[in-house]
User: Fold this.
Amino acid sequence: MNNRLHGSVGAATAMFLVGTLAAGSSVINDYPLYGGQVLRYALSATILFAVARAKGLGLVRLTPRQALLLLSLAATGLVLFNVCVIQATRHASPTLVGTIVGTVPVVLALVGPLLVRSRPSWRVLVAAAVVVVGATVTSGLGGGSLTGLLYAVGALACEACFSLLAIPLLPRLGPVRVSAYTQAIAVPVLLIVGVVTDGSGLLRMPTAPEAAALLYLATVVSAGAFLLWYDALPRLGADRAGLFAGVLPVGAIVTTVLLGLGTPTASELGGAALVIAGLAIGLAPSRPLTPAGLPNRVWPRLPRWERLPP
Assistant:
């Protein structure tokens, strides 16, 4: 399997798994919000460090720049993202929040190439626009206040940071370490936010269904999706990888059907078709790319343990 195909499969799977987040989160609606995030990321980080040890990936000495990038990634892509989404849904409908955050393919298509001193691809931009339209048709627009809108825009920026800040870290640390480090850093920060917000009610013993949902979110949505995404990101580049954000509502639809919670509407099916069309436009072969999807001069050769056979 070549790098482009491998990355596409990984990115699609990662975003599909993240799309199941809504169904899994519905089970823990009554559990303290930040306490649930603390448990989720703590368990996920533990799993990821175990994976790193099994793969023989020891701890590495971080440079000040790498430490700052990891801290920024955890603070924006995990902690602040959660805060913005939670606050946005208190002031706006979930569909509006999802629609705004769902425009991240366009942001990555514009900003991703600029970070490596390259021009954005018009074809990828068009593809990103088609994906965003498809995701919007699938989820709807919704409504809300200006406060909700601003929080949703903040969540969008944090979602973009989740990918853009990881790009310079992945060649040296690899997807396992980046995933493990960022989630481990996020745990104490979320704990502090939770104590300030919920006080002594931050944590409680979960019920059996809540424990099962938290276990699913930690193992599949956090550990699994993080690894798949950060493995796919250097293979595709931020702009093309961002297109797969349109798979999120598709994952939500499929999960809803599988759990017997409803059937897809005509608009949802039409939106999913547009997402697929946008992916086809953006991922069609053009010029030869390096395994990282970026020019050799800006993407160093990956360590031996991160290379895949052709």
